[in-house]
Amino acid sequence: MYHVVTRVRGKLVREAVGHSRKVAERRLRATQVAVDEDRYEPPSNATVNEVADEWLASLRRRATTRQQYATTLAYARAVFGQKKIRQVTATDVLAFLEHVEAENARRRRGREKTSAAVSETTLAKHLRQLSVFFEAAKRRGLIAENPVRHLDSSAKPKPRRKRPSYFTDGELARLWPELAARPSCLYAMKLAVTTGMRFGEIAGLRFADVSLSAREIQLERQFTAGEEVETPKDREPRTIDLVPAAVEVLEEWLKLRGPFEEGLLFERETGGHLQNDEARDLLYAAMKRAGIERTGERGGKRDVHSFRHTFARIALEHGAELTWVQKQLGHSSITLTRDTYGHWSRKAEKVAAERLAGAFAV
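and the corresponding structure tokens:
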């Protein structure tokens, strides 16, 4: 372990700066400059609990995101919350992962007959969020290095890639009649299939956001976890181009809803925004009546978000450019669109194979 030792206001200050000589030399030069400019702050003796409280209070994120970080830090507090943040090591991080596993197993034993292990995906999510916290502490000069980065690769969770969870065309045809008793949810889900919008984005739509003459929707907000947020999940407003089927869905809905010109486009029967949990339960009941399995043909678990996957599947099967699908979905990376949403149904893949009859001279 390398240390930088300097004298500040007549006192020697010793700061651990990690195991890399190059990093230590850079830190030494930076420290010397900071001391010369009278802006050097000695290493903090703050505990993880103290830093976590300050960081969560200053976190400018949506309520749901803040809650996710708070959950991760609650696990960390239980393991090394009283420890000085600059003394946390990779061994502590490993203990954190073990604690997350143990706590999830304990909770599952209370709900189920078997105590299945927490998924690698969940562990990876908590580890990623813990790393974000330590990176913030590093930028503040509270720690020299992020201890998560020193965790051996063999000890890091290996999340499985999520399997496609789209609905097939035949399943959609059986599903829609089972939702007819709840027209607001029915048409909201149909709009999700024909636009690729998230359900929370559709729940936040207002009449003024829709232009049937221009065949587009100006997406500027979403409704999630009981609050309306002024930006979509990707934090950037975007324009949704309406395919002909989406225009038909909206025309049918506006005719059914009546000549309203303001307020929410879709509302619960009792008023207010559509609720994702309520829509999910409604969907599961309709799937059961329609004989549609929760697990899709590719092994993915279906829920309300699966309508977004279904939009991408249908668009790509019918020749849409991947970059257009990316824009519609609001992804910043085409890799995400390709790897997570870029799947055809097995029926469409079989048809594509049959089109090549006679193409190979063998």
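(Above: one complete record from the training split.) The chain has 14 helices and seven strands.
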